[in-house]
């Protein structure tokens, strides 16, 4: 069973930055597309960004385009989410998720992803 562990969350002021990491244990990530999702209190989970197996294709929610960057280092079994110019509405629990297979692209559909991490809290507040 693929296990994913997120880290890098915390409290940051508006306009600040954070870098989230998603590390897999036990399995190489070469054969997985990876997505980042978030859930704010009282709201439904939403897709933030995803990246295909080799990092050649990425996808972003409109709300984070130009501010967030997803990347991956398969040698380290790690996917990153660099978050800049953070806003209070970015607050939530951020989850990484994996979809097994080889893909040319990815879509932000949570139901497509089979394995999920426990999440890391991101709070943007002054």
Number of helices: 0
Q: How large is the share of residues in beta strands?
A: over 45%
Q: So what's the overall shape?
A: globular
As a whole number of angstroms, the C-alpha radius of gyration is 13 Å
Helix content: under 10%
Which stretches are poorly predicted, pLDDT < 50 over at least 5 residues? none
Instruction: Give a count of the beta strands, DSSP E runs of length 2 or more.
Output: 11
Order of helices and strands: EEEEEEEEEEE
Note the main sheet: 7 strands, mixed
Judged by helices, strands and strand pairing, the structural class is: mainly beta
Oligomeric composition of the shown chains: single chain
Separation of termini? 40 Å
How confident is the prediction overall: mean pLDDT?
96
SSE inventory with pairings:
Elements: E1 3-7, E2 10-12, E3 18-25, E4 32-39, E5 46-51, E6 58-60, E7 68-73, E8 78-83, E9 92-100, E10 115-116, E11 120-124
Parallel strand pairs: 2-11
Antiparallel strand pairs: 1-3, 3-8, 4-5, 4-9, 5-6, 7-8, 9-10, 9-11
Description:
0% of the residues lie in helices and 48% in strands. The radius of gyration is 13 Å and the shape is globular. The protein is an all-beta fold. It has strands at 3-7, 10-12, 18-25, 32-39, 46-51, 58-60, 68-73, 78-83, 92-100, 115-116, 120-124. Strands 2, 4, 5, 6, 9, 10 and 11 form a seven-stranded mixed beta sheet that branches. The protein has a four-stranded antiparallel beta sheet with strand order 1-3-8-7, with no helix packed on it.
